[in-house]
Amino acid sequence: MSIIDFNNQSYPLEPRENVLQCLLRHGVNYPNSCQAGICQSCLIKAKDGVVHPSWQEGLPETLKSQGYFLACLAKPETALQVVAPESAECEVKAQILELKPLNHNVVQVKLGVEDPTPWIPGQYLSLINPEGTIRSYSIANIPSQEGVIELQIKIYPGGVMGQWLMDNAAKNPQVTLRGPFGHCFYHNPEHLDFNILLAGTGTGLAPLIAILKSALYQNHQGRITLVHGGLTDEDIYCKEELDALSTQFNTFIYDPCVVKSQGCYPEALIDRRVLTHINNPQDTRVYVCGPKEITNKLKTRIFLAGVPSKQIFSDPFI
């Protein structure tokens, strides 16, 4: 039986149990959210013992090299000594500069940081408020150009982070950021003429806009298509900005759709709409973002349409 040593206490692991489950079972209130290796909330650091690379999925190389891993992915077979993340190594302070509604339930949040250059457009970060609440959000702009980090946050009824932002951010605007993480960013390619398909629903639009702007900024030559889906017309946002970009760049196609329309947008299921834009699957790179269930469905449909799995990138939302 493996032993986890944390805060000078030893905790035995049950068979097939991960580090996070072990800590929680023993009453340790360790930060966590998705418990699926996506949100990075359970980031932890090994002081002694073997860290398997599969436990570090999605982490930047700087954190991997320092022994960081995700507690929810780790099932050690030998003893492991771990500590909570050290803020100086993996966190920075940020200031909430602006809150602006984008539609009926999405708010644009602009954050000021000392150095915006490490924050990669399209990747996601963990936002930690002064009360210790942690949530993950995608970067929706190019911070190195604009000097700020933009997030697009959906406000859920009863949502802890959303309500804190609406009620308390103006009075206490300092937050902590951890990251960036994830696979959804414009990878520097050897050639610039392949097609790009961006697909997502709701605030899955945030990283897609960032990837789009990165590609246009780097003079991407292939066709870029962005399909944004919603349930109703009011779920679509950033339309004016995206319409302007499609007018300015003839290689960019913007195609919003909704399940039930009152006449503003085409009625279509996004997984079907996306397939109409796949004309050359072997030379198409696809980015899919949004809720996990929809993201997985889209990825399957796109793969079956002929796009190789290695050319499909996603960071599903939890």
From TrEMBL:
UniProt-listed SUPFAM superfamilies: 2Fe-2S ferredoxin-like, Ferredoxin reductase-like, C-terminal NADP-linked domain, Riboflavin synthase domain-like
Keywords assigned by UniProt, alphabetized: Monooxygenase, Oxidoreductase
Domain 2Fe-2S ferredoxin-type residue range list: 1-88
GO molecular function: iron-sulfur cluster binding; monooxygenase activity
Cofactors (names): [2Fe-2S] cluster
InterPro entries: 2Fe-2S_ferredoxin-like_sf, 2Fe-2S_ferredoxin-type, Beta-grasp_dom_sf, Cbr1-like_FAD-bd_dom, FAD-bd_FR_type, Flavoprot_Pyr_Nucl_cyt_Rdtase, FNR_nucleotide-bd, MRET
PROSITE patterns per record: 2FE2S_FER_2 (PS51085), FAD_FR (PS51384)
Domain (FAD-binding FR-type) ranges: 89-187
Any Pfam family matching the protein: Fer2
Protein name: Xylene monooxygenase electron transfer component
